Amino acid sequence: MSQPADPKVVTRFAPSPTGFLHIGGARTALFNWLYARGRGGTFLMRIEDTDRARSTPEATQAILDGMAWLGLDHDGEVISQFARADRHAEVAHQLLAEGKAYKCFATQDDIAAFREAARAEGKSTLFCSPWRDADPSTYPDAPFVVRIKAPLDGSTVIKDEVQGDVTIRNDQLDDMVLLRADGTPVYMLAVVVDDHDMGVTHVIRGDDHLNNAARQMMIYDAMGWDVPVWAHIPLIHGPDGKKLSKRHGALGAQEYQIMGYPAAGMRNYLARLGWSHGDNEFFTDAQAQAWFDLNGIGKSPARFDVKKLENLSGQHIAQADDAALQQEIEDFLAAAGREPLKHSQKDGLKAALPFVKERAKTLPELLEKAHFILTNRPVTADEKASKALDTVSRGILTQLTPQLQTATWSRDSLEAVLNEFAAAQDTKFGKLAGPLRAALAGRAVTPSVFDMMLVLGRDETLARLEDAAA
Question: How many CB atoms lie within 10 A of CB 2?
């Protein structure tokens, strides 16, 4: 069943450009993309590049390249958070003017002394600024930060579509800094202002941001803005149940492209990582968009399982449109820095794809199955295939060649000729298959001998058999 259309839905993906597109970030982007696309809504992209020391153009490009590989298209221009710093500061000054924020002249030494005294008295170390209600006439001529006035009593309830209602006592919230002493806005302010100005209706992000929601709601409330729908999704863990890290293998989305996983398989797998729709494991993009909803997201961390990824990738390769699959193979070769296909190889691969895409879990596996059409004469047999080309086998191939020269080049005819020849040799076709694979492909594991013959054609098949027999 499709989701009801709601063009008012606006989601966003907002990574920090400090490295590659992390696999967890890729899943967050996918969930936002699916939620918006399935409802005819809008999916936006924002780069949170306020940390100038760590943000790089190269990392931004790596993230955008990762999104492009995954096929997660966004609407409108990519927004730079850093470029909007003046707007963020404007909101802080508005709250200052309305008495909802204040200038705090406390130094780091003042704050440290406050916390030390609070610890000694067994009280909360949450900083309570003496400047919260100070008379402006008492302000010193000194640097200051701008802090928001947090509610002093009651509680804040985060109504979360994944985690349920999460209640935080307001006495656990400090008067959060909005502007630093140099006048630059903090990340927490920038996020809220950007989400509001971009019209974001649903914030779908990792549950490591859950506590941030309560602090960000202070800004929404102070500005009188609508609070978005929250959906904080559990993080991804490795097979050992610990937070996904380098020790579990590749972390960057594009590393999986370079390993040869198809984008559709990656999307399918990431969608199933923490979200479910009944017992469906394999599904298309159209089905994922029609089915995806926040109530299908589990509360527990999902475990990354390479075997499941391989299984789904294999299914997507098998069911892929041949032209699209050929383009993905060419993109994979470029991303992996491998030799591009020559024109003749492209034509050969096009003919072979229907026979080689079954049971290949990755694109390198598929290319290995297609080796017979990508290689040129004379075909060099690898070590395992060479064992099938002993003196007896070469003699058999010599006798077989004339039989094939007069055969009709169709599967039924080729099967009949080979089976009759095997019977005449008082053997079974299976005994012929090894030498034929070695002669035609130089490999012991190949597609069906008949499929290879049909793709190679009469002349090339006979030439390869003659080469091997010699």
Answer: 11
Catalytic residue among 123, 149, 159, 246: 246
Catalytic-residue membership of 350: no
Nearest Cα neighbor of 397 from 426, 428, 439, 429 is 439
> For residues 163 and 158, what is the distance between their CA atoms, to the nearest angstrom?
9
Q: What are phi and psi of 167, to 5 degrees?
A: -105, 130
pLDDT tens digits for 33-58? 999 999 999 999 999 998 888 888 99
Say if residue 243 carries a ligand binding annotation. no
How many Å apart are CA 102 and CA 97, to the nearest integer? 9
Contacts of 152 (CB under 8 A, 6+ apart): 170, 171
User: How distant is the alpha carbon of residue 400 from its chain centre?
Assistant: 51
pLDDT, tens only, 217-271: 999 999 999 999 999 999 999 988 888 877 777 788 999 999 999 999 999 999 9
Q: What is the mean predicted confidence (pLDDT) over 30-34?
A: 98
Helix axes 449-469 and 343-356, enclosed angle (nearest 10): 130
Taking alpha carbons only, the member of 145, 146, 135 closest to residue 91 is 146
Number of residues in the chain:
470
